[in-house]
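Sorry to interrupt, but I need a hand with the structure work. Go ahead and set the record down below:
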Amino acid sequence: MRIGFCDDDKAFLELLASYCRECLPFVDQDERVDVECLSSGEELLKAYRLGKTFDILFIDLKMKGLNGFETARQIRLIDNEVIIIFVTSLANSVLKCFEYKPFWYLVKPVTRKNFKNVFMKAVAERTSASRAECVFSTRTEGTVKLCIGNIIYLESLSRRIRLHATDGDYFFYAGINEEEKKLEKYDFIRIHKSYLVNPHYIKQINRNWLTLTDGGRLPVSGRRFKAVYDRYTDYLARGSLS
């Protein structure tokens, strides 16, 4: 994950970068995080032209040369996925922000608490199933990139995986255990030795069967039922609070 801070105030750049580094222990430790400071909108756009991409950007609105609005406008022409957070000293500027599809904004002076709150929201959004993608290779279709939010369940078929998605089935060589490790951060639940399910598509669950929102049914392992039930109710509870 690459995080960029763009501001022509060097001292403020260093402050935000220090806040960011303090938050990194709370980010998934399996993922490498790069933090970059850029002193102008021009420098940020140059980084894009050289092939760099960012996952999260903090952009100051009031900069010499290209201001934050124009910088964001040009970024959106080439990158519609990056999470943009505007930083401003003028609260009334926020009303002008929305055409650039910002995720959030911070009003100066930025406190450590406010930064952490917004930063962790952005990280959660970046790692959410609705944005994340799964990449795998199949014999018939080559390399496939699929939104994790569109995966309904995975089924183990000996050494192959059948991935059942909203647009059909895909088959690739892998083990269900390794796929479980990749997808557990997105709340996928191992309901059976052969099945891994996206809880978003669960309609009903009991000790023997799970009913999907599309009407399909999958077996639930008796010895796994309590863990499955606890994980699913936890998922529902977190959803009701968000």
